UniProtKB/TrEMBL annotation:
Domain FAD/NAD(P)-binding residues, every copy: 4-280
Sorted UniProt keywords: Flavoprotein, Oxidoreductase
Originating organism: Actinoplanes subglobosus
The protein, known as: NAD(P)/FAD-dependent oxidoreductase
Keyword Translocase applies: no
The organism's taxonomic lineage, starting at the top: Bacteria, Bacillati, Actinomycetota, Actinomycetes, Micromonosporales
Length: 323
C-alpha cells in the first residue's frame, strides 16, 4: 500500500493549488481526480488574474504538470471511502487515513484534503443541458462581458432568479426575464421595470438549437423569442459525500479545517460560490495550515520521551516480561 503525507481528493483548481504548495514543501503528495471538472463545458474562464480567457482544461493541464514536476503523483480515479486509522480518542497529531478508490486501489495518508467540487443542477428543459456553459450560462462574472450589449434572457422560477436578472442588467440594456411559472411580487416587478427588464410570463417549453447555437426559446403560449444567451441560476449541489461519510464539517472557512482532525476541505465542496481563482486561493490556504499541522506532529515525534511517557513505557515492558 502506497503511503503519503497528504492525499488530495479532487484535481481542480483548489486541489492542484493545495498540492503545489505541499510538494514545494517537500511533502509526499497524491492527487486523486475523477476527471470531471465542473467547468469542462466552458471554452474559456474569466477573471483569473494573468489567466483571463484561458481554457479551463489548459489551466488544469498546467497545474498537473507543475505538481508532477515537483514530484507529486497524479492518480486517475474516484475515491469511494476514507477511513481513519487512528484509534478512537487518539490525539489530533496521531491522525492517519486509508483511502480506497473505485478500482480497489488503496493508499495511506497522514492527512487528507477534500476538494471534490460541486455539480450544477439545472431545470429539466429540453435543449438546456446541451448548451450549458456555451450560450446557456450561469455566472455573469464569468461570461457577462463576452455577451455584453446583446439581447439576453434570464430564466425565472424562483425569487433568486429576479436578483439574477437585476445583476445581468449590468452587462446589457436588453434583458428579458422569463418567469417560467414564478409569480413575482409587485415590488419585484417594480424593480425589474425600473431597470428596463421585460417580464415574459408563461412556461419555457424548450430551448431551440440551430446548428451549434442557441436559436430561440419556445414558450407554452408563444412561438419563439431569440436572446443571444440565456442565463440560468442553477442549484449548486456540493460533492461533499466524503465529508458527510466521515462526519466532518468545516470549522474554519479561512483554513478549511474540519471537525475531524487530519481532514481539510477546500473549493466548491465547501464554498459553492467560489470561482476558480477563489477556489485556488482556498486550496493554498488549506495546504499551508495543513503543513503547519504536519510540522507539529514531526516535532512531537522527534522529541525524547517525557518522564511520564518513559514510566509508562517501562511499565509496559515490565508487564510483557512478566507474561
Amino acid at each position: 500500500m502506497s503511503e503519503y503525507d497528504v492525499a488530495v481528493v479532487g484535481g481542480g483548481a483548489a486541489g492542484l493549488s493545495a498540492a503545489l504548495v505541499l510538494v514545494r514543501a517537500r511533502r509526499r503528495v497524491a492527487v486523486i481526480d475523477a476527471g470531471q471538472p465542473r467547468n469542462a463545458p466552458a471554452a474559456h474562464m474569466q477573471g483569473f488574474l494573468s489567466r483571463d480567457g484561458m481554457a479551463p482544461a489548459d489551466l488544469l493541464a498546467a497545474g498537473r504538470a507543475e505538481v508532477t514536476g515537483y514530484g507529486g503523483r497524479l492518480i486517475d480515479g474516484t475515491v469511494r471511502e476514507i477511513t481513519p486509522t487512528a484509534p478512537v480518542g487518539a490525539a489530533a497529531g496521531d491522525a492517519g487515513f486509508r483511502v480506497r478508490l473505485d478500482d480497489s486501489t488503496r493508499l495511506r495518508a497522514r492527512r487528507v484534503i477534500v476538494a471534490t467540487g460541486l455539480r450544477d443542477e439545472i431545470p429539466d428543459i429540453p435543449g438546456l443541458a446541451e448548451r450549458w456553459g456555451r450560450d446557456v450560462l450561469h455566472c455573469p462574472y464569468c461570461h457577462g462581458y463576452e455577451v455584453r450589449d446583446r439581447p439576453l434572457g434570464v430564466l425565472g422560477g424562483s425569487p433568486e432568479s429576479v436578483d439574477h436578472a437585476l445583476l445581468i442588467r449590468q452587462w446589457s440594456d436588453d434583458v428579458t426575464f422569463f418567469a417560467h411559472g414564478y409569480e413575482s411580487t409587485g415590488a419585484e416587478r417594480q424593480r425589474l421595470t425600473a431597470r428596463g427588464i421585460r417580464v415574459v410570463d408563461g412556461i419555457v417549453n424548450r430551448v431551440i438549437i440551430d446548428g451549434d447555437r442557441l436559436a430561440g426559446i419556445e414558450l407554452d403560449w408563444a412561438g419563439m423569442v431569440a436572446p443571444h444567451a440565456l442565463f440560468v441560476r442553477p442549484r449548486l449541489v456540493p460533492a461533499d459525500g466524503l465529508l458527510a461519510g466521515l462526519g466532518a464539517v468545516v470549522t474554519s472557512e479561512r483554513t478549511g479545517r474540519t471537525s475531524l482532525p487530519g481532514i481539510w476541505a477546500a473549493g466548491n465542496a465547501v464554498d459553492p460560490r467560489a470561482q476558480v481563482i477563489t477556489a485556488a486561493g482556498a486550496g493554498s490556504a488549506a495546504a499551508i495550515d495543513l503543513h503547519a499541522d504536519l510540522v507539529e506532529e514531526d516535532v512531537r515525534a522527534a522529541l525524547p520521551f517525557s518522564a511520564a511517557q518513559e514510566r509508562e513505557a517501562a511499565a509496559v515492558r515490565q508487564n510483557v516480561a512478566a507474561v
